[in-house]
Please model this.
Amino acid sequence: MAEPTVRVSGTVLASLMFQHLNSDSDVEGLVLGEGRIEEQVTISDSQADHIHIEETYNVQKHIACHRLNTLYSSTGDLNMEAVQKMLVDNKRESVIGWYRQRRNTEQQMTLREKLIHENLKNVLSNPHMIFLLLTPSKVTPSGSTHRMEYSAFISRSRRFVNVPILITNLGLLEQLAYWKVSTSCSAAGYSLTMKKHGSRFFSSDGLLKEVKEVNSMNESLQVELQKSCRDVEESERLVEALQAEVSSLRRRLKEKQQKEATEEPEPVRSSDQRNVRLQESVSSLSCCPLFCSQTLNLQGFPLPDVSTATQVNADSPPANRNRKRPREEPMGGDRKRRRS
Amino acid sequence: MSPEVALHRISPELRPLLCNVVRNGRVGLDSTNCLRVTDLKTGCTSLTPGPCCDRFKLHIPYAGETLKWDIIFNARYPELPPDFIFGEDAEFLPEPSELPHLVHWDAGNPECLLQLVKELIQQYHHYQCQRLRESSRLLFEYDSLLEDPNYGHNMEIYAGRKNSWTGEFSARFLLKLPVDFSNIPVYLLKDTALDPGEDVALLSVSFEDAEATQVFPKLYLSPSIEQGVVEYDAEGFTKLTLLLMWKDFCFLVHVDLPLYFPRDQPTLTFQSVYHFTNSGQLYSQVQKSYPYSPRWDGNEMAKRAKAYFKSFIPQFQEGAFANGKL
Model:
């Protein structure tokens, strides 16, 4: 269930008291401010989540009626024209309630106040209207001590509930919880100053610029961190693979050594034992005229070599022995006459 | 606070309204006492010279209780209608359309405030009757009385609050008994200027629980009636002694109700206040046979008894003079 509280700054309360002090009768007027409903969820391991709803009404300003009974009739019916006239410089949405100050009376709503409150709720279409009641009284007969009692009332199903008023600059040391930011000030001078200098500190969405920069930096850091994490991961995988390979090689070596230890030693081969395959490869390469030394003419073209041609003919298959190799005419240039 | 003190301290512009209330303010069934004003205070600053009181508590007798309502004016704006705080009955919210003297408040009419208070009491009565719905038994009792023309418009209901410890709901009915007091002797007062008010007999019935298992009746008589009634049994209501006068002849009548009344007839004992017997006792005559029927209701019995008194007294007076000694 919602627990409403009304917060009034010391300045506003002092202003209300000052107004009544300078009046020789009861006074009344409208209260401007902002109402807010917050839902707090308390998460605990030992019990189910607890949802706590807080209704907070911040009183920021009051508009006094110049004369009693101008806003309503004897039966509490509202005079909308008078209400509109009072709100000429203020938004209707900022009206969160009304107030009355009466000396030497009980801290209870009167018949007419209840009727006015219900009508005001309907006319301004705000079911969360508050009514501030201040009742100063003389404590001692000599008048040396006076008392000022104040409280707020809110209507719930046509029943009026007393709501505590907290003075925002007195005794609100909420050290055990996060500080709840109060609603923005509606004073004209404050708004002008913020408009003039705000762009240096605040971005277009109302956040402090440093906050945005810090957030960007944080995002960049996160990206770099992720990159580094990927590199580390790859490196670790590589290390893991190499370790696996080393382990495998060691295992094979060990097996081989074990095998060699159990078998007879083989005759030692001479160091000049020939590698037959290598010899054959070299022989085939040496027969290729491209790898043999050649005689070149003045133009740089190779001249046919008789010994190489004879060897080639000898090694060629028999079918090809009787066929004469076509003479290759050098392209251009004079042919060197060879003596046979 | 006496009315004079209250009128002295109230703001001059509001004085006529308050004067009407304290002088002529008899409301409800118990109109023997006027409305009382206390806690007179001001809404002006303490620097304002008096008299400037413009708010006070009004004590209103209702159904055996005393309602304490705050009435708030503004001395600086005396033409404005008053406002009200209904004490502990914070949930009482009358419909403004049922308060014509509030809708058409006329500060120049001295009776306006008193009339408005009467209208509020009437609305308060409706509010209390609505609260009886919390108990079907008490609602039945109320509906039964409402149907009786003798009591329908002559009762006040107070539905008490539930006891926060026991959860019990209680109520009180105050009924005006339809009794003819025309033959009661003139009320003799030391202060002849004081008006004793209307002759009235009120019966207060308290129900201590919602099921009406504990019922406590109480009889209230107006001062003039109490003066006529010499004594009566306030617990069992079985004995009553009246001081009556017929043609300047005063006499006492003792009415004794037997155990099985109304089946058995009451005994009437007439006693002279002037004459003694030889044994030094007041001369008296006992009558047990006179016109009577157990089927008569209380009013019929009283009416027949009164008629019998008228017919018997001359004979009794002669006997007293003849047989008694002054």
